[in-house]
Amino acid sequence: MHHPIYEFLFGTFAFVLGAAVGSFLNVCIYRWPVDLSINKPRRSFCPNCKRAIPWHQNLPLISWIVLRGRCANCGAKISFRYFAVELVTALLFLAIWESFSWQVAIAYWIFVSFLIIGTFIDFEHFIIPDRITIGGTIAGVVCSLAVPALMGADSRLAACLRALLAAALGYVILLIVLEAGKMAFGRKRIRFDAPTPFTWAKRGDDADFVVGSEESLWSDYFAREKDRLLLECDEVRIDHHRHGNVTLDFRYDRVAAEGSVLMLDDVTHISGIARELVIPREAMGRGDLKFLAAIGAFLGWRAVLFSLFAGSLLGSVVGLITLVAGKRVWSAKLPFGPYLAFGAVTWMFFGETFLRWYGGLLNP
Known about the structure:
Elements: H1 3-31, H2 62-66, H3 80-99, H4 102-125, H5 130-146, H6 156-185, E1 187-203, E2 206-211, E3 214-217, E4 229-238, E5 241-243, E6 246-250, E7 254-257, E8 260-263, E9 269-280, H7 286-299, H8 301-325, H9 337-362
Antiparallel strand pairs: 1-2, 1-9, 2-3, 4-5, 4-6, 4-9, 6-7, 7-8
Helix pairs in contact: 1-3, 1-4, 3-4, 4-5, 4-9, 5-6, 5-7, 6-7, 6-8, 7-8, 7-9, 8-9
């Protein structure tokens, strides 16, 4: 008689817990990419005025709505992302609780927390920190050891071994894609319609690289030590030295021009007029490899293959839409981690249904 009441209470608890966890995930999403501690300061603060937010103005979901997405102190706009993360986490926690046994649900709560942090950081910064990828892989192996049902195993040892092998598969399969992509599409040549101004300006340990209207960080182009960037120029000024028609051959830390090599640590500013640019590029970031490994550690080898397929399909569709909707710039990047996360969550809820459907296609 009380069963529906218990279901409602536990479902409400899962939703509220998810919203509270989502509030903490927002802290990680904001602080980790900029190397801020999640413990100091302990309380959340406004990104604009830096004032600590009192607890009654930091209630998950409720405060953002009541304050209309603005800081109560300075009135600055608070990104909708904070509300979205809390809501998505709450809904996923509830859906997981309703769909799986409590042991599996707790493990999946941990898993989707890693996915959400990785997804939103990748969308904003185009990176997935090792705390998410390596930490997620370790957490997946530990959870599989504690809950063998994650791997469909009867023994903890078998579950642990399967989690490790699935993680290795996820990493290796994307490593093969990465290396094959580098060999086939490792350089991109851009010929400008007209002579185009460019500047290279040092900024700390990095540099700002601007070509025409395209602005980017120097480190964005150099994933490997052997990567080269070539600029064919009508004229160049390196600090106070002028050069005429010349090709600049850049590595991350040096530039070769007219037979001489300059270390970029000794250069503050390079500018000129370019006719053609050749940039190195990667099929994806190495964080994606470790992200897929974490997915394998939680969900197994079949989820690795499905997440890669579903993520690639969705990423291709989104890429085509952006291409049709507006002109893509040559320096634009698309994060792959969110699409892998989409594939993982889809598998988590509908993987068995997909296998039955696919099996029916093979054996009508």
